[in-house]
Amino acid sequence: DEQFPAASLVKVPIMAAVFQAVKEGTIDLKEKLVLRGSAKTLGSGILKTKPSGSVYTVEELVQIMITYSDNTATNLLIDRLGFDYLNAYFKELGLEETNLSRKMMDFRFRKKGVENFTTARDMALILERFYRSENMDHRARQCLAFLSQQKINDRIPRRLPEGVTVAHKTGLERNVCHDVGIVYTEKGDFLICVLTKHTSTSKKSKDLISRLALHTYNYYQRL
Questions:
Q1: Are 187 and 194 in contact (CB under 8 A)?
Q2: pLDDT of the residue at 64
Q3: Which of 159, 161, 199 is nearest to 179 (CA)?
Q4: Residue 28: CB atoms within 10 Å
């Protein structure tokens, strides 16, 4: 229940909110958004290198936001849905300690102490909702599919055997390093959420997360 700066973990409930907005008819996955030069954002992602004026569907932006942890795609979706809608849906999901107060890489607001927060419990809750709804809800299946296509695999999956599927989302920002996800194994699937703070570099945090994931995996394989 301890709050941590969310970093890119906040992209998981943003993804859920997009699919909820689709269900409500507020937005369409095929709706096209234009990438303006002013929208390009520093940090992780691929859109910052794409030509201004490029056009992407909402569905493409969600996938890019998750698989490449793209900050620009995230901010485009935040602009489209708005802070009020997103935060209201987070609470509707039961994410009591998760908020969206600023855009990704908004250093001006961060210097003022404006921060996005979450907890391990909240991240576990939303991932479990995806998992338990997978057989009944195509939106949950699509969310898990995007999480399984994650390109940043230096934490939970790092030490796991080749071929093990991990649906997960990383978070990395100044002094915080996270990874949360579901590991699919022949002996059963397990959920693991590790949020960390550090004072120097993220190397030790990434190593810790990968070792915890391997220990958990080995435990379940022995049952």
A1: no
A2: 98
A3: 159
A4: 12
Q: What share of the chain is helix, strand, coil (3-state, %, to 5)?
A: 50, 15, 35
Give this prediction's pTM. 0.95
Contacts of 205 by beta carbon, 8 Å cutoff, 6+ apart: 177, 196, 198
User: Which pair of tokens denotes residue 213?
Assistant: 């994931």
Would the pLDDT of 52 be above 90? yes
pLDDT (0 to 100) of residue 32: 98
Sheet strands (E) in 43-201: 55-57, 117-118, 165-173, 176-184, 190-197
pLDDT 10s digits, 148-179: 999 999 999 999 999 999 999 999 998 999 99
For the purposes of burial, counting CB atoms within 10 Å of the CB of 108, is it exposed (0-12), middle (13-18) or buried (19 or more)?
Answer: exposed
8 A C-beta contact, residue 140 and residue 134? yes
